[in-house]
Amino acid sequence: MKNVKYLAMSTMIGSALMLAACGGGEETSQTGDNGSENGGSEVSGTLNIDGSSTVYPIVEGVVEEFQIANPGAEVTVGFSGSGGGFEKLINGEIMISNASRPIKDEEIEAIKADGKEVTELELAYDGLSVVVNKENDWVDSLTVDELKKMWVDGGATTWADVREGWPEEEIVFYSPGTDSGTYDYFNEVVLEDEQINKGATLSEDDNVLVQGVTGDKNAIGFFGYAYYLENKDNLKVVPVDGGNGPVEPTNETIESGEYAPLSRPLYSYVVNSAVKEDLTYAYVKFLLENAGMLAEEVGYVSLPQEKYDEQLETIEGLR
């Protein structure tokens, strides 16, 4: 969500804003009063991150707060999609990639072929949200089968094709692009690897999808839960029936898994060897310490604290 604005959160984050890092490596460190690891030192250098547009709102907030704590650090975040981020990770352009789907076996093999290994970090839960225009007064819910009937190429073309009694108006489709992990997840649980409607507008920028659905009474789209929450005054979310009755995405139904099958984890992947560098280590540590709180701030659902703690131990082990 590129235009999300974050309030100053220093008082909420408290002592977590002060991170320690060892000296050495390509990045330089500026030692604080006690100078020991995890004892209040700042880090500096340049770090580039890319990947999922769904994960972007969380990481944007983390980066803003991290740079307040470490003014000598320059961290940039792109959102080329989960697949685009993994491609850059494979090519060695970045050492950290955000994703709204798990990394694929072939992507792991390509990374290994370059002599690298990665660690998967879960950041939060998301509920992939199906939305229609606010003026749409006929859709009260959709089953997974109806979603497939609509979105698969050659399927339903009008709302009347989906359910009897709905208008004979052509459906206008808006979807994340094929490099998006959100697209991959929808493809897995709804399309089942069939061709998406060829008339759909595809974009890696979820704001384009929001604007498209907002501007057309007959439009339907899908994207991450946080993008729906930010635009809920202009969009209508559709409860999805995964077999146990229609369920609307909320923090509670996403965390419990009741919002099935469209609930999913969100990830960052880091190259293991990069964690030995002070800046990367400090950033990843800060990410895990603050992702839960910042995920809630932008509309996602945090993990149990013990999950973040376990992953922090994993990162410490890579040092």
From TrEMBL:
Region ranges (Disordered): 24-46
Could you give one GO CC term from the UniProt record? Answer: plasma membrane
Q: Where in the cell is it found?
A: Cell membrane
* CDD domains referenced in this protein's UniProt entry, alphabetically: PBP2_phosphate_like_2
Instruction: State if tRNA processing is listed as a keyword.
Output: no
User: Among its keywords, does the record have Lipoprotein?
Assistant: yes
Q: Name one GO molecular function term.
A: phosphate ion binding
Membrane topology type: Lipid-anchor
User: Keywords in UniProt for this one?
Assistant: Cell membrane, Lipoprotein, Membrane, Palmitate, Phosphate transport, Signal, Transport
- Which ranges carry the PBP domain? 38-289
Kindly indicate where the leader peptide sits in this chain: 1-20
Read off the Pfam families from this record.
PBP_like_2 (PF12849)
Instruction: Tell me a GO biological process for this protein.
Output: phosphate ion transport
Q: Where does this protein have compositionally biased stretches of type Low complexity? A: 32-45
Function comment = Part of the ABC transporter complex PstSACB involved in phosphate import.
Q: Which PANTHER family does the entry mention?
A: PERIPLASMIC PHOSPHATE BINDING COMPONENT OF PHOSPHATE ABC TRANSPORTER (PTHR30570), PHOSPHATE-BINDING PROTEIN PSTS (PTHR30570:SF1)
Q: Which family does it belong to?
A: Belongs to the PstS family.
SUBUNIT field: The complex is composed of two ATP-binding proteins (PstB), two transmembrane proteins (PstC and PstA) and a solute-binding protein (PstS).
- Please state what the protein is called: Phosphate-binding protein
